[in-house]
Amino acid sequence: MIERAPAPPPAAAPRRPSLPARVLGTRAERLAEPQPPTAGRVAAYVVLFVLGALVSLCGSFVQTLWTPAGLLLALAATGAVFYGGLRVTGTKLGAGMPLAGWFLALMVLMVPRPEGDYVLWPTLASYVYLFGGSVLGVICATLPTRSGGFLGVPGPRR
């Protein structure tokens, strides 16, 4: 009786990247992108801070005006600004600057006016917007970046 060698396993089909990897790029692709010059990053930080404050202002009105779709729209815009800052600058501060502007504007909007009115009423949707935006900001600020340093200064080789 002749024994045959087991047949080799069939060749695996090339793995298709997941939807987030196709939209946002893989980690290797993101880390291989060139970093903008320092002057460009500093200007971008200022613009991102102001953009974060504007998104906070608009989001506080939109989430109240069109509940619940407005809440989802406001959170999507908030997350897009945080992630966009991370991708544009390539640093964690790129996500932190719009987060700081967003949070500072929200704190100002939550203070009651002298007439007794609120811009951002203490409702469940407002608290979800505050908590959800904070979580999105922290998530974006902890994603891998192109530089090893906080401000974009290259870190040690890994």
UniProtKB/TrEMBL annotation:
InterPro entries: DUF6113 (IPR046095). It comes from the Bacteria. Keywords: Membrane, Transmembrane, Transmembrane helix. Pfam families: DUF6113 (PF19608). The chain crosses the membrane at residues 42-62, 68-86, 93-112, 124-143. This is Integral membrane protein. It comes from Kitasatospora indigofera.
